[in-house]
Specification:
With 330 residues, the chain is α/β, with parallel strands linked by helices. It is built from twelve helices and 13 strands.
């Protein structure tokens, strides 16, 4: 089958509400800074009423990655579940407006479209309270074989690993992808996901994953160690390729034969870290899908992450293609 997409992603379809907040507000609401917690629809609505005025934008980790890929000039597809409601229409419009293929039929008669309340403190840490709603209704029947088989890389969002139907969807996507000679990529998403599903994630990584994305806290949680070096050596033995981000220290790219270090792109002021890992994955996979060397893939990832943390919101506000060209990275 011909290559129609650089990346086809499967993940939570979420609308983000992003607003500035103080540490005192987090304490008053019982929120742990920098963490992501799951809330019900009532708690989500209550937080919305109390938060400062902010920005509403389509989000979701893997969907943000597809948006970044599109900004580089890549061709992406996204599979996720929204409800037949206003936020579902907004999300669908936003994905298709960036040129992404979004084939899924909206959910009727079930929970509302997912929404994440994101409070950003002055130190740029984001604290997320997420109502997953319709997004966790994604199941194996929602996996489009034609899309999976036409993508160079099939990218799976770790946040979705919480739901049993989604895990079956991941297994189906992995089988289809490998049957078509495609690559399966997985992002661990958050250390809380790792803590809840360590054994299942390790089994899936060892048997199905070709490319793993993680940050420092996620990879050390995965192997239950405080040593980053121990964790990355354990990871090297389990996957063909991995990219591990380390905030301002840049990232480390691992293969079974080498370990490459990539410096972080300088940022004048860090405003909001929401979407940093998502955009790193976008740049890395764009480079990989286009046959770039691994060091260049890492630089493209770092560039995209630097752009997104310089403003509010999880998606690029400038053309990443133009930005990369101006830095002579493409």
């Amino acid at each position: 089958m011909s290559d129609l997409y650089d990346v086809a992603a499967i993940g939570n379809a979420i609308v983000d509400v992003i607003a500035p907040a103080t540490d005192a507000f987090l304490a008053e609401e019982g929120l742990t800074k920098g963490a992501m917690i799951l809330v019900d629809q009532a708690r989500s609505a209550a937080l919305y009423r109390k938060m400062a005025q902010g920005l509403e934008a389509s989000g979701g980790s893997a969907a943000n990655t597809v948006a970044g890929l599109a900004s580089f000039g890549g061709k992406g597809a996204f599979m996720g579940k929204v409800a037949n409601d206003l936020l579902g229409e907004v999300f669908t419009h936003d994905m298709r407006a960036i040129g992404a293929h979004f084939p899924n039929t909206p959910l009727i008669g079930g929970p509302a479209t997912a929404v994440s309340m994101i409070n950003v403190t002055p130190d740029a840490q984001r604290t997320m309270s997420t109502f997953l709603g319709a997004s966790v209704q994604f199941a194996d029947d929602d996996v489009d074989p034609a899309v999976v088989e036409a993508a160079k890389i099939v990218y799976l969002e770790g946040y979705l690993f919480d739901a049993e139907p989604a895990r079956r969807a991941f297994a189906k996507a992995a089988g289809l992808a490998h049957g078509a000679g495609r690559m399966i990529a997985l992002t661990l998403s958050d250390s809380f996901v790792v803590e809840r599903h360590r054994a299942g994630l390790l089994g899936f990584i060892e048997s199905q994953v070709d490319l793993l994305f993680a940050n420092e806290s996620e990879v050390t949680a995965l192997f239950e160690t405080t040593s980053f070096d121990v964790a990355v050596e354990q990871l090297r033995q389990r996957v063909t390729l991995a990219a591990v981000t380390c905030s301002e220290q840049g990232s480390v790219i691992l293969t079974q034969g080498e370990r490459l270090s990539v410096a972080a792109e300088p940022v004048e002021k860090v405003v909001d870290t929401t979407g940093a890992g998502d955009q790193y994955a976008a740049g890395f996979m764009f480079g990989l899908a286009r046959g770039r060397p691994l060091q260049q893939c890492g630089k493209l990832g770092s560039l995209a992450a630097a752009e997104v943390i310089s403003h509010y919101g999880p998606r690029p506000q400038v053309s990443l293609k133009a930005l990369a060209a101006s830095r002579a990275i493409l």
